[in-house]
User: What shape does this take?
Amino acid sequence: MLRSQVQLLSWAFWLIVAMKKRFPLLILFVVFMVGFWVWFDKVSEKERPLRADVLTEIHRRIEEIDEMARKNNTPEFFTSVKSPVFQLTFIGTPAAPYLLKETLNKERNILSRMVYIQILAGIENKESVPCLIEILSNDEEDERLRAQAASALGILKDKRAIPQLKKALLGENKKIAQLAKETLKNFKE
Assistant: This one.
């Protein structure tokens, strides 16, 4: 519990003690106030701006991944980016809009974009589903990127992806079709 929640509950307790005769009405009022406060805290949490240091960290880690991808364009790249991936996953949802933007940025390295998709799936960001569907449906995108998008959609298990996964299942690319088939199995589990 947060310190302010504890304070609120202690004030409510002493108010109840002071007003013994109106106890049921007071209980109802306190429950209402605590519920409103919790709701307001959750709503305002979404609207709070990111602290400058967190925003700087997000951008620094995104650039670090992209720089590593430019230098090391091999399968070992995925093991070399563990630290920035961990940091962005730890930051979680606040990093999602920036990761989405970079995932759609075709000027970024394919390997970087694959890592961004992996992080979005790791933080279970449902807002990334339309972006992932767009990547999966675009035949001009790199096969590896499309495969990563299909895998991420399987992790997120969002029903909006099913029609596009079925299309990919019937597509010409055998690897994407196989991944789409496996991803659709995840929806049944």
Summary: The mean pLDDT is 80. The longest helix spans residues 23-47.
